[in-house]
Specification:
Blueprint (H helix, E strand, L loop, with lengths): L2 H18 L3 H8 L2 E12 L10 E10 L6 E11 L10 E8 L4 E5 H7 L7 E10 L4 E8 L2 E6 L3 E2 L3
Antiparallel strand pairs: 1-2, 1-6, 1-9, 2-5, 2-7, 3-4, 3-6, 7-8
Length: 161
């Protein structure tokens, strides 16, 4: 075998090794380039914490709309930041792989998050619902407390494909 053939074979082997060893997160970023992080606050907070939320009941509903003319698939994850609080980083937990038809919408709320969570969530929690999609979506969060409601458009982030 010539030195040119050996070099070409090594290049092919090296390229194949690189393409197989792409971390799962990087592959997911390319397959699901549209990302949304919706704040979620759920449950009954029994006491007012210093600098935190006041004692009352909180509810969040996140509405997801597919404006496209084709069906899309998206990943839904939850990362609970309180508890644990105290500036301890927490990894997200995958809740579902959902499908949404053209011009269709769905909602996820505190009850749905509790039902889909592998671990029982505490009576009060806050964090983020993370949505990774193959297509651009409309994502709107609705926050309610006794006597009040707020509607927030969740911004879209795109990752390079």
């Amino acid at each position: 075998m010539s030195s040119h053939s050996v070099a070409r074979s090594l290049t092919v082997v090296a390229f194949c090794s690189l393409s197989v060893s792409i971390p799962a997160a990087e592959a997911q970023d390319r397959e699901f380039p549209f990302h949304y992080a919706a704040k979620v606050v759920c449950g009954v907070q029994r006491e007012t914490r210093s600098g935190g939320v006041v004692a009352q009941t909180y509810a969040t509903t996140i509405n997801i709309h597919n404006p496209a003319d084709s069906t899309t698939i998206f990943l839904k994850s939850l990362v609970v930041t309180l508890p644990p609080g105290m500036q301890r980083p927490v990894k997200p937990v995958r809740l579902a792989v959902d499908t949404l038809g053209p011009r269709m919408a769905l909602a996820t709320d505190c009850v749905d998050l509790n039902r889909r969570s592998a671990n029982r969530l505490p009576p009060f929690f806050e964090g983020f619902v993370l949505i990774d999609s193959r297509q651009s979506l409309d994502v709107v969060a609705v926050y309610s407390v006794p006597g009040g409601i707020d509607v927030v458009h969740v911004p879209e982030r795109t990752r390079p494909r």
